[in-house]
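dumping the sequnces here before i forget
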Amino acid sequence: MSQSTPVFLEEYLKLHAADLADRLQRLDADEARALLRQLPTEKAAAALAETEDERIPDLLAAFDAVQLAKILEHIAPADAADLLQHLSPGRRREALGKLPGEIADGLRALLRYPEDSAGGVMSNRLIALREEMTVEEVRELLRERAQEERTEDIAYLYVTNQEQRLVGIVSLRDLVFRRAERSMGEILNRDVKFLRVTDDQEELARKFEHYHYLGLPVVDVDGRLVGVVRASDALDVARKEATEDMQLMVGLSGEERAQTPWQQSIRWRLPWLYVNLATAFLAAFVVGLFEDTIAHWTALAIFLPIVAGQGGNAGMQTLTVIIRDLALGEIAPGDGRRALVKEITLGLLNGLAIGLVVGLIGWWWKGSMMLGLVAGGAMVLNQLAAAASGVLIPLGLKSLRLDPALASSIFLTTVTDVAGFFFFLGLATMGLKWFGM
Amino acid sequence: MSQSTPVFLEEYLKLHAADLADRLQRLDADEARALLRQLPTEKAAAALAETEDERIPDLLAAFDAVQLAKILEHIAPADAADLLQHLSPGRRREALGKLPGEIADGLRALLRYPEDSAGGVMSNRLIALREEMTVEEVRELLRERAQEERTEDIAYLYVTNQEQRLVGIVSLRDLVFRRAERSMGEILNRDVKFLRVTDDQEELARKFEHYHYLGLPVVDVDGRLVGVVRASDALDVARKEATEDMQLMVGLSGEERAQTPWQQSIRWRLPWLYVNLATAFLAAFVVGLFEDTIAHWTALAIFLPIVAGQGGNAGMQTLTVIIRDLALGEIAPGDGRRALVKEITLGLLNGLAIGLVVGLIGWWWKGSMMLGLVAGGAMVLNQLAAAASGVLIPLGLKSLRLDPALASSIFLTTVTDVAGFFFFLGLATMGLKWFGM
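..and the predicted 3d for all of it:
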């Protein structure tokens, strides 16, 4: 390090790679690149592997193809493939060209899988064993491998047959505990749970959550073992995937973050706001149908947003429970009807409980029992509409093979606004016509 | 098994414990208990460990204290403590009394920690090593332990000093790879990340996501090693914890599921619906202030819900991004101001883009330029209010040490309704007064 090295470089060197990545993300692009160039390759590589996708293109600009190749060699292949995904095709080819052939081939294989599939998350740096190998032979093999390459934290080893198909699993613990002369075939567990390369993030998260393993093997379409996903990598995926729904629900991209530049945010958000606007005009059109009624009875304008808003809120409760249960895999195909019955029951009871209060307030505030009856009645009906749509919208989106969360709150409030306005103003019009004011 | 054993029992026996638990949860309470009694203790215990909390009290009713004690012995202590938490204090004491003293003491220690803390999630069945032990001695120790008790999948071993304080970590891999005569002191890594027993689920999930380890040790207030959390257990916690926010946002309990009985659901949901109703009347009161204006100009009633609803929608987008980033730990303390500036910018631009369209439609539909100006202007102002409250509500809740998601959508729509109605009807009243219609 030269004399001009800033004092704080030593501080950075002491940090865990994940913490270093955090710091890099908080610096200006120029400062971050300058810092990266000063770091030893191993440290820079580890920090880049932990960096959020969005900042990667900026940071990689600090390096030429040879430096990039060195960085790629120092991190796990899954992380290296992620970095490569953020380079232009030209630079990617260049960097791969500077890598030893075997490593480059491995990375090219990983790049073929979508980033959000098991194939995209898995590491292909795995050790596959044969059934006839003994505990002692495996220990020896691991010792050799440990010297020739950086291996990852592993908890299990996988056993394959001659066609490279996965046949069983041996825990690293067994290698410590079992006697040296036992063969893999004797100690392996054949009931091995696995992922397919094409499994998406949701499936991946679900299998990890369901089975509680520290790692799951990944097989290709022919059942050949091609990689492994560790629970600690799945955790990342699971948290992002699970929380994505809350953004999709309100018409946001699952990828948006507080740090996303506003130019990108507006491109993601504005289209859904326009969709919402169109549905709002649909609801406004319903109000327009009853303009004469409102002109006769302006107190209706006060209660209009209450009936619609309360329906929207109760509907959001139902919608959110259903979407979360779908995401966590707690609703099976047959459960839709049961959920609908429960939510309709709740809608009726909530509707009566709220409708009664709204009706009494309407009567007391404006001195009109008719207003109370109309507001209370519309509230009950709209709570039923809210409950039904809260269940049916996500299940409907799912049956269309869309994400059940996709813009669902926008669709839901369309229903509760249109239905709320229609029930309330419709009842009011009937009341005016039949009973006068 | 007796002759009357149903045919399908054999099918159940072949299932993975997690899949068996799924089946149990889909049976009637009576059928489930009958099935549990027929299963071998080990299988029943494994299935109960995987069962959702809600069904546990029902299922445990199948067993007497002696049977319960046997079940508790067959599962990981953390799972056993979870089961015990669902028994009445009397039955709990009875079951603990039937267990060997050492195991009962371990469980009593675990029961002292809240279920949603690192202490509540951790396993206390861990192997702590001393620095002076050699690789060979540790291998021997593990072999002995493997025979006397069920050990869990482990990836790391922890090294403690004489005061039982955590001093370093050794990976299981090292035990396979390193030479037999090396001591733990020579091969351990002193830079060990850890959890504190009091860390809550959110902190736990964040540390796992940040550092990507397969396991983290847990220390008590004095720095003594008391347990270990595996990444695969953290994954469960992380998914539930991360998605809890989407329910809290809309005024739901984080624990509600589609399967929750309606009697419980209504007790959780109705109070927040009443809070929402109170805030809706606050907004209605604002509308009531301008009843004369509406009586003069009923077209306002049509645009009223559009201005408010569009503000609510845009505000929900901001709110959701902020809450998700807070949950995933991607917003640091200093980032609040930056997020506010970004969202206000977006609010202004979205407001102009939507306000223009609303204004033009208002002008064209009702032939009144004034209506267009009022609607468009109110839309811009309300988008700014939405953006500001979308950032400030979660940060405000956080600074009050509440969950940033808690009922935040109810608070947000209160702001966007009140502000939207006030801006729109206020501008309309000014327009009527100064320019006529």
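Residues 335-366 of chain B form the longest helix (32 residues).
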